[in-house]
Design brief:
463 residues, Alpha-Beta Plaits, Archaeosine Trna-guanine Transglycosylase, Chain: A, domain 4, Rossmann fold, 3 domains
Amino acid sequence: MPLYLYPKSPFKHNSEIRAELQNEMLRLIGHVDDTVFNDVQARLDCLCSWLCSTPKTTTFRVNNLVADTETVVKEITKELSQIGPTFKVRTNRYFPELIVVSCCDTTMELNFQYLPKEIIVDSICGTAVLRGAHVFAPGVMGIPQGLQVGDTVSVYADLTGDCKKGFNKRYVSPYKVFLGNGVLRITRNALFGATVKSPSGIAVFMTDVVSRLPSLSDSVLSKGSALLQNLPSIICSRVLNPLSDEIILDMCAAPGNKTTHISDLMKGSGTIVALEKIKSKVERMRIQCNEFRATNIQIFCFDSTKAVSEVKEKIFSNGPPYNAESFDRILLDVPCSALGQRPQLTNPITVAQINSYVPLQRKLFSAAVQLLKFGGVLVYSTCTITVGENEGIVSWALRTYPYLRLESVRKNLCSLGLPHIGASGMEISGLTSEESKNLCRFGVESDSVGFFIACFVKTIAET
């Protein structure tokens, strides 16, 4: 029986990306000898392997504007009982909107036999399956002739993208990885027939997945009651700590998960302005806000780099751009290289693309500082692991805006009953040891996606 190995690195341009990440690490360390160099290589190996692996938990965020946590837990538990293996569902009294579902025990016997009937999916679909999704029709690349609805099939992800859409034979390649087994729910003709334009629905109902996470989506829950959301993303809104009588700005708001969480924390009161420059994302956000009964959110299709008004005394209710010092708290979850996503089966990003984000992040940050009231809070976050987009931005911000003060993210985590989640930021030139400790970085030590959170307070008037 052949062994389909998972990649050791997700990067298509692996040598170039490793060299970039290596140079970042070496610049942090300063003095370099053979021992240090070998240690950096080992850390990079560990990082790349971690990025290819799947977190061992699935997290839901309850929307208390619609439902209570106990009710959602019952719905999740009921669904899990129909799947088969016993999964652990946990809540946290200090963090009541958080529900954590752990993967089934490794001693639980699942069917990981390679079957003669198989389906090929693209790498994006593959990562979704590993996180607990079924195979949906748009992700299917190849399905052999003769397979019938109800057949038990093995599902593989194509890492290289060489499997052409509609492939009708068994796909032979060393660059496919085994995801698990499931039951076929759709015919080949319904996927690739001559009259089919946009196939939809579940193509394979997954029964046994190698990540051992349950195939569980928020679609099984009452509409608007909860959603799947990565733990660091949920923590972000808690670090912002919005109050019910405040005016909040979410500068890069799509898809709206953090925005609706902020609304929940404000109990539907106060005002939230959500800006997103891509129109199609704005429309999807409006739908989610309606489902989540987040009535205190004003959504605008607008470029946040231009959100500061050049006209004095502009009327707030007219929408963006806004006068300086208009907001009590600002969440800036910036566009980034997204290298922290897990699992990654393949990632075509280039070094040039990675380096292109910092100028945009600085422009957005500058706008945020101007829009923030004195005494206000600014939370900066990314879903990447590079130093330049994380600690590098913090160091630049403290130099550029000396009236900004870093607040401890760790204190927030302790108050949420999560004292051991995440790690401090990396110590780099321009940041003191204490400032680095105030940052929170989710990396290889964390059972989550890669993420970064910094919290600033605007302390005194500009000079």
